[in-house]
Design brief:
The complex is a heterodimer of chains A (405) and B (178).
Chain A: H1 13-17, E1 31-36, E2 39-40, E3 45-46, E4 48-54, E5 57-64, H2 72-76, H3 81-89, H4 96-111, H5 119-147, H6 152-172, E6 181-182, E7 185-186, H7 194-215, H8 220-226, H9 234-239, H10 245-249, H11 256-259, H12 285-311, E8 335-343, E9 346-354, E10 363-367, H13 369-374, H14 377-381, H15 386-396, H16 400-404
Antiparallel strand pairs in A: 1-4, 2-3, 4-5, 6-7, 8-9, 9-10
Helix pairs in contact in A: 3-4, 4-5, 5-6, 5-12, 5-15, 6-7, 7-12, 12-15
Chain B: H1 6-17, E1 22-26, E2 33-36, H2 41-50, E3 58-66, E4 73-82, E5 87-96, E6 101-103, H3 112-123, E7 126-128, E8 156-157, E9 160-161, H4 165-168
Parallel strand pairs in B: 2-5, 6-7
Antiparallel strand pairs in B: 1-2, 3-4, 4-5, 8-9
The chains are: A alpha+beta (405), B alpha/beta (178).
Amino acid sequence: MASKIQYQYQEGGLVASEPNKYVEANLKSDELVVNLGPQHPSTHGVLRLEVLTDNEIIKDVIPHIGYLHRCFEKHAEALPYNQIIPYVDRMDYVAAINNEHAYALGVEKMLGISEQIPKRVEYIRVLVAELNRLASHFVAVGTYAMDIGAFTPFFWMMRDREHIQRLLEWVSGARMLYNYIWIGGLFYDLPIGFEDRCTEFVKYLKPKLKELETLVTDNKIFINRTANVGVLPLDLAINYGVTGPMLRASGLKFDLRKVDAYSVYPEIDFNIPIGSGQMGTTGDCWDRTFVRVREIHESVSIIEQCLVKLQNEHKRTRDFDPQEIVPKKIRPKAQDLYIRAENPKGELGFYFRADGRSDMPFRCKARSCCFSNLSVIADISRGSMIADLIAILGSIDIVLGEVDR
Amino acid sequence: MAEFDTNQIVELIKSTFGEAAVIDVVEASNPTVVEIAIDQSLSIFEFLHKDERLYFDMLSCITGIDNGPEVGTMEVIYNLYSIPFEQSVAIKLKVFREQPEVPSLVSIWRAADWMERETYDLFGINFKDHPDLRRILLPADWEGYPLRKDYKHQDKYRGMTVAHEDLLNKEDQPEGRE
């Protein structure tokens, strides 16, 4: 069966399945359509950009997405709530725990058990979510530096991310797709000795972050490549539904961890870094990277505070069971609910409709932050050079798994 | 911190557009879902966006819902958020499954562009006056709208069997687990 050739090549088949918006016959003189991707490392996955150029200047960018569409929403309609979690992992696969956290918050709210979740469970959730946020920002900054020509930061970031992955592997058994946060609890308590190992990691990481700043954000070449490039004004960002570090880089102090104050974030002290145009204009590519680097520092501080709480007030006890209130049967009352949470890349939302009669959602819509953030690319790259397009695309920090779902 | 609640939004819409503009208010949902009349919807959305007392500057999410062939309706739900007032609301439009059509909001929120394309792609709901209504996630020559409840996928796509090999011999989709 497997040796059977399935795909039938047809002349013009690709054109029929994903036609370009700009047809050669309608182009003006000097105009040229350049195709970028889908198989190109700088597109961070399988994204195809149809670029209309006039010499070196970009006139329009048409993203073609959907190469990684896996029908998450259709699958979700045929699965019980708890079995959807592994699918949620695979949306933004570099920040899987953050996805799980948002999803679990939503279902718990529908069941009305949000208040009963033990504090220790919530602190562990925030701890692992922030570790995952670090990993996601490491990938974002590392690959971004590589996109615009610096190779070292990528290795350094991957080296530090490896520590996080090993920590999370110790916690959950998986390196990237964890299925660790369950509805109403956790898969398992933290392993014994985790808090100490994590404290050690934070101690190791702090000087490395200083190195990162010297190497990337304070680097003259990096500043020249990114300052004043791809400027996203605040009003345009809001109008496009752009969220996360991109919105904050445009100068708005807007973080759902503060605004919605979900989980135990209100008990934790942290700042919201915003872009202010230090090296050029507010909302340029440098600001976006700068905000991510500052957020790494904030996440480290959140992790430290969680570790203190987990070693003192909410210490591990012999009778603590993280699955104590995990419901045996998840059947929410008939209702609609929209939940959103701050992912490393922006606002991840879920729109649920429960019909009250089944264990499966009637509808589960995922509002993807990368999807909305990517939609702004045409507006911020018009008029820049082709080389800058790579810089702009990298600064948006997309994961195609979440764009396409 | 919110300076108004959903009741006030409903009152404002009613006083500006008449009692008939608001069809239903679903309090049991979170945030409250307000169903509005489709013929006035575009001006109501403009009002929600522009009015200084409301200022819903962000369109967070557009959700399409198919209620199935028995009920015969589809819904489009818009999650709006007002950043200065920290207030959210969901607006619902209800259409019949035959030739579903709602006005496009791209002229108000450009975020609607891709979200409406996605809803069109997966539900076949037509967004009137959308500048560029093409399929976005699926290939342009895909048949049918997958998120409709009565969707049956095509057998072959460019010579490839669409169903997974394990499912080929079974008569229908896997049984739903209750």
